[in-house]
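Structure (tokenized):
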């Protein structure tokens, strides 16, 4: 077989730790997390390309889990924890980033640890430490594969995924407003006006004969002169 074909079938796992970001800047306990980028053609991984974010304490948890599950004492070391580590010191952050990348670079080359589900959840899901423990122990409604593929579909985080809306829930606001108006039509809040008897008479005037008069005078002068009987008619 030509060497080119052998190289094409050779499995590779490329992992990078990059893009450190400070979280909870305005709190008393800010921390730095790092993006983990994975690219592989290995059949050991569910997804061939993935990204997630992890902080230093999660790396510590991962190493303890791998050490316990594989019974290996010679696992790669993490960068040492520093009591004087500062999130705002670029040199501290960069030194830790390099140490974390060296750790993962050596871990993914160890065949014995590639069968550990916690490693795959750590690299390719957004589950927290407690959620990863529960998933591996079978205490969740989703499997390891579900948790990894969930991030690919919608970037969701178990168990917060909401069910999709049903067709009857996808109505437009205008349709809902029209339906409310049909059920409860708007009413005038002002009290009904009382019509004067002569006004009611006017509404029944058929155009023949004399128009009905109001029967009241606007001024005392009209009352005295007697000329208000027709001038005050509603026209």
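Design, position by position:
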């Amino acid at each position: 077989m030509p060497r080119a074909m052998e190289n094409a079938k050779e499995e590779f796992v490329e992992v990078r730790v990059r893009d450190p970001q400070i979280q909870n800047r305005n709190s008393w306990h800010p921390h730095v997390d790092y993006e983990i980028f994975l690219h592989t053609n290995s059949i050991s991984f569910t997804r061939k390309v993935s990204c997630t974010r992890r902080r230093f304490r999660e790396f510590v948890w991962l190493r303890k889990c791998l050490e316990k599950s594989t019974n290996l004492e010679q696992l790669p070391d993490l960068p040492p924890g520093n009591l004087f580590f500062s999130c705002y010191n670029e040199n501290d952050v960069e030194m830790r980033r390099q140490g974390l990348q060296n750790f993962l670079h050596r871990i993914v080359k160890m065949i014995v640890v590639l069968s550990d589900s916690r490693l795959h959840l750590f690299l390719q899901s957004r589950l927290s430490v407690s959620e990863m423990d529960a998933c591996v122990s079978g205490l969740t409604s989703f499997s390891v594969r579900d948790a990894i593929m969930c991030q690919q579909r919608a970037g969701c985080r178990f168990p917060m995924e909401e069910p999709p809306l049903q067709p009857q829930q996808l109505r437009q606001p205008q349709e809902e407003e029209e339906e409310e108006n049909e059920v409860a039509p708007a009413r005038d809040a002002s009290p009904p006006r009382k019509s004067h008897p002569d006004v009611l008479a006017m509404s029944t005037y058929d155009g023949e004969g004399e128009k009905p008069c109001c029967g009241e005078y606007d001024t005392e002068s009209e009352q005295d002169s007697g000329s208000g009987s027709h001038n005050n008619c509603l026209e």
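Reviewer-requested clarification: Residues 154-173, 199-205, 211-235 have pLDDT under 50 and may be disordered. The two ends are 111 Å apart (CA to CA).
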